[in-house]
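Figure caption, in words: inputs first, then the predicted bound structure.
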Amino acid sequence: MTTFETYLDARNGTVLDDDLVVVLRNIAEATRQISDKLRTSSLDGLTGSTEVTNVQGETQKPLDILSNDIMLEACRRSASVSFAVSEELDTEVAIHADGKYAVIFDPLDGSSNLDVNVTVGTIFSVIRATTADDILKSGRGQLIAGYAAYGPQTGLVLTIGQGVQMFTLNDEGVYMLTNADAKIVPEAKEFAINAARRSSWDDAVAAYIEDAIDNGHNMRWVGSMVADTHRIFNRGGVFLYPADRNKPASGGRLRLLYEANPIGLLVEAAGGAAIIGTTTILDIEPTSLHQRVPVIFGSKTEVDKISAAYQERVLGAAAAE
Ligand SMILES: O=P(O)(O)OC[C@H]1O[C@](O)(COP(=O)(O)O)[C@@H](O)[C@@H]1O
Ligand SMILES: [Mg+2]
Ligand SMILES: [Mg+2]
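Bound structure (1,6-di-O-phosphono-beta-D-fructofuranose present):
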C-alpha cells in the first residue's frame, strides 16, 4: 500500500518541489499531533472554553489554541514558509523572511463539537507568497489544499493539483493511501444546511431546499464543515451555508481564505462544484484575511440547479428594472 511519504516522493521533482514536500510532511505531522491531543483531551483537561476571544469574536477552546500552536510550529519547521494565516490569529504571522509559501489554515474546524466527541478537522491551503500582499489572492492561486478529519478514523484528504487523494492514519501513525482518485458523484439526494436559520435564507436557497424535500432528499447537518464535506466526498450531496438575508454586510458564516477556498479547490478537483451564488468560490478576489462568504458546494448537478436558481433571480431582477 502507498504511504503518504511514498506518494510525496513519487511527485517530488514534478508537481512538487523539495520545499513543498517538506511543507506537506510537516502539515501531516501536525495533524497527527492534533489527532493525538484530541483522542485524550478529556483526560488531559483540554475541554470547555477559555476566556480568550479570537479576532472573529468567537470564544476559543483550549484545543483551538493548541491546534493553532501545533500548526504554527509546523510552519516554523518548514524553511520555505513565509507567512502563516489562521482563523485564530488577528493577522498574518511572518515565519521565514526568505520563504516563498504561505500556509493558511483553520486549525480546528467545528470546534463547537469538541466536547460532544463528534468529528472535527483541520483545513489548510498553501499558496505562493513572498510578501504579505501576495496572500490576498483568489482561490485559483492555491497550490495545495486539504483537510484532516478527526473522527472514528483520522483521514487526510489532499489535492496537489492532480485529483484528490485520501489517506487514513494507521496504528503506527503512518498515513496510508486509501483512495487514490476520490470523486464526488454528480447527483445525490442529500443536503446539509442549518435549517434553524431558515428565515435568513434567500429565495434561491429556500426554493432549492423546498424542492429537495418534495423530492425525497434526506438532510444531514454535523455542524463541522469538515465532517459534512467528508460525507459529501464519500456519498455525494450538497452543503449550504448561505449569507443571512437580514445581515447582508456580514457576508456569511464561513471564512473565504481558510474554509471556503481549500474546500472549494478539493471539491472542484473531485468533479464537484463550489459557488456563492452566480460566482464560483475560487474566483472571488479576497479583500481581507478573515472575510466571510456564503458557501454552497458538493455534487455538480445539484449545485448547478442552485446556481441556475440564482441566475434566474439575477435575470428576473434585470428584467424588472
Ligand atoms: O453553528 P452552525 O450554524 O451550525 O455553524 C456550523 C459551522 O460553523 C463551523 O463550525 C465554523 O468553523 P469553526 O469551528 O472553525 O469556527 C463550521 O465547521 C460549521 O459548518
Ligand atoms: Mg471552521
Ligand atoms: Mg476553527
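The chain has two domains: 4-179, 190-320.
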